Amino acid sequence: MTEREMIEQEVAEGACELVHVHDDIVKKVQSVMPDEQELIDLSEFFKIFGDSTRIKILYVLSQSEMCVCDIASLLMMGQSAISHQLRILKQMRLVKFRREGKTVFYSLSDGHIQTILAQGMEHINE
């Protein structure tokens, strides 16, 4: 492939035809960019949503507070598998729990999680 063909391919793929940095735009965006650790934390947060079992658990908890037995029965999975995923969700502060006698009930930590799920569903159903 010639140099010209490579340049034409880059242009066709959305690269700038003329290399020119718009300093005013770059500085404006740079001033509001979160720091590196915040972006890493955000990335880790979204990784949690990359597992279908965790998504199912979050979805059922968006409908009702439930214990591990209820979730396992509803999802037709073992309690240990559910407990493992709940532990991860607790560590990421996506779910909270309360104890009632010997039973532990789980629910979503806050309305943000329900909003994220609802917006995700809306996006895939467009």
Radius of gyration over all CA atoms, rounded: 22 Å
Average pLDDT rating: 90
User: What is the level 1 CATH name of the domain at 51-124?
Assistant: Mainly Alpha
- The arrangement of helices and strands along the chain is HHHHEHHEEH
Task: State the fourth-level CATH superfamily of the domain at 51-124.
Answer: Winged helix-like DNA-binding domain superfamily/Winged helix DNA-binding domain
Termini separation comes to 40 Å
Q: Describe the biggest sheet?
A: 3 strands, antiparallel
User: For the largest beta sheet, what order do the strands appear in spatially?
Assistant: 1-3-2
| Percent helix range | 55-70%
Helix/strand structural class:
mainly alpha
Number of H- or I-type helical stretches: 7
Chain oligomer state: single chain
Low-confidence parts: none
The total of beta strands comes to 3
Instruction: Provide the β-strand percentage band.
Output: 5-15%
- The CATH architecture classification of the domain at 51-124 is Orthogonal Bundle
Shape: elongated
